[in-house]
Design goal:
The complex is a heterodimer of chains A (271) and B (161). With 271 residues, chain A is an alpha+beta fold. Chain A is 31% helix and 25% strand. Chain A folds into three domains: 47 residues, Uridine Diphospho-n-acetylenolpyruvylglucosamine Reductase, domain 2; 120 residues, Uridine Diphospho-n-acetylenolpyruvylglucosamine Reductase, domain 3, CATH 3.30.465.10; 90 residues, Enolase-like, domain 1 (2-Layer Sandwich), CATH 3.30.390.50. Chain A contains ten helices and 14 strands. Chain A has a five-stranded antiparallel sheet. A four-stranded antiparallel sheet of chain A has the order 11-12-13-14, with helices on both faces. Chain A is globular and about 55 Å long. The N and C termini of chain A lie far apart (50 Å). Chain B has two domains: 75 residues, Ubiquitin-like (UB roll) (Roll), CATH 3.10.20.30; 65 residues, DNA polymerase, domain 1 (Orthogonal Bundle). Chain B is α+β, with helices and mostly antiparallel strands and 161 residues long. Chain B starts with a strand and ends in a 12-residue tail after the last helix. Classes of the chains: A alpha+beta (271), B alpha+beta (161). The interface between A and B is medium-sized, with 29 and 32 residues.
Chain lengths: 271, 161
């Protein structure tokens, strides 16, 4: 049973930022609800107001243009990405990460914006957005600002978002079109599970990127590996960028070992 | 807040508390108790219903979010004593043991078959990966779906993915 709160569903972006400003201290944003509602149920969050960001006209945007690249609004779910011919065709890396996220029912509700705003170290969409040079467009009543995802995550479950501000849309640039990649996520079971560690490798021509989930306070982008590096040099660079801990899902040593296994495997797989 | 929605083809208009989950609304306000609550936090899939054509965990949706929605639950499957095709395939293949996961399983399978009329074993397993069966009847569930849609070439025991 959930304790009582009020539900607000503003219909315009202007109304939304006004409400977010008024409810800076006692409001929480609701997108897919797959994290917020269990958190409320478990007493981890006690908002007086729950503010639905899916009801504005812009929220349902999932559109590609050469100028803006792929624009992803606040209501776009993980399965919307998987079902989008544009995403499959132009940004297959988004799809390989989306496919690894939770279960089918959760992918039908969970949003791309929610997955990054939660800023869990085990976010599955963050590695793709980091490797594809995506940008976050943030909006508050004071205006808009744009921020590359490389600077978006600040700590465990923390981002640059200020009280009263929300992630209005994600832009994946046109220049990242056609980048290919593969995401290896270590889990206890093949199905629905949180990752023990995840490694994404993306290749665009000679340019190689890695991004690692569940291995540091934030998802980590590693853009120092070059096509001239051998596998051991690549592993050394990736491990140098992360700082895994030991917890209930795995030890630091196990995570480091598996990152090495995955980096070597990806280098031979992603051509 | 007053909400209006369609469940199994019938329209309902109800006053609903804003913090009420869709699961509670369906079970307690509409009295449709076929949909089950297992974990209440999106892990088990017992509460799966079809919301505007998509299988979702109704424990993680607010009823007020579903204002205007079209919902399908297990009660919409059978027509009197006549089971739906999915239910009949589950029965024929002994894909029901204790039955607690079954309403959610059937809803997940229903969405799968609406999108993909002839799924292979991997696609079936992916569609129900968010539905836990603690009697562990997964093989029979996959067989039930394949029995309904026609197996591709593989005969005999299903290969485990």
């Amino acid at each position: 049973m959930l304790y009582e709160f009020r539900y607000l569903a503003p219909r315009t972006a202007g109304e939304l930022v006004r409400i977010l400003d008024e409810r800076k201290n006692d409001g929480k944003i609701l997108a897919g609800g797959t994290d917020l509602i269990p958190n409320i149920r478990n007493g981890l969050m006690k908002p007086r107001f729950v503010i639905d960001v899916k009801k504005t006209p812009e929220a349902s945007t999932l559109a590609y243009s050469d100028a803006d690249g792929l624009v992803i609004g606040t209501a776009i779910t993980i399965n919307d990405i998987l079902r989008s011919a544009t995403a499959q065709d132009k940004y297959p890396v988004l799809c390989v990460c989306a496919h690894e996220l939770a279960s089918h029912q959760i992918r039908n509700r969970a949003t791309v914006t929610g997955n990054v705003v939660n800023a869990s170290p085990c976010s599955d969409m963050a590695p793709a957005l980091l490797c594809l040079d995506a940008k976050a467009l943030l909006r508050s009543k004071d205006g808009q600002r744009s921020m590359p995802f490389k600077e978006f995550f600040t700590d465990v479950k923390k981002t640059v978002l200020k009280p009263g501000e929300y992630l209005e849309r994600i832009e994946v640039p046109a220049e990242s079109r056609g980048a290919r990649g593969s995401y290896l996520k270590l889990k206890r079971i093949a199905g629905h599970d949180l990752g023990i560690v995840g490694v994404l490798m993306v290749r665009r021509g000679d340019d190689i990127r890695f991004a690692v989930s569940s291995a540091a306070p934030t998802p980590v982008l590693v853009d120092t590996v070059t096509s001239k590096d051998g596998p051991e040099e690549a592993v050394r660079k990736v491990l140098g960028a992360v700082s895994p801990i030991s917890d209930v899902r795995g030890t630091k040593e196990y995570r480091e070992h598996m990152i090495g296994v995955y980096v070597r495997r990806l280098l031979s797989e992603v051509k | 807040m007053k909400i209006k929605l369609t469940v199994n083809g019938l329209s309902y208009e109800r006053e609903c508390a804003e913090h009420r989950t869709l699961l509670r609304f369906i079970r307690e306000d509409l009295g449709l108790t076929g949909t089950k609550e297992g974990c209440g936090m999106g892990e088990c899939g017992a509460c799966t219903v079809i919301l505007n054509g998509r299988a979702v965990n109704s424990c993680m949706v607010l009823a007020v979010e579903a204002d205007g929605a079209v919902i399908h639950t297990i009660e919409g499957e059978a027509n009197g004593p006549a089971l739906s095709d999915i239910q009949q395939a589950f029965e024929n293949n002994h894909a029901v043991q204790c039955g607690f996961c079954t309403p959610g399983m059937v809803m997940s399978v229903k969405e799968l078959l609406a999108q993909n009329p002839k799924p292979d074993a991997t696609q079936i397993k992916e569609a129900v990966e968010g539905n836990f069966c603690r009697c562990t009847g997964y093989t029979q569930i996959v067989e039930a779906v394949m029995d309904l849609t026609g197996r591709p070439e593989e005969k005999g025991e299903l290969k485990h993915v």
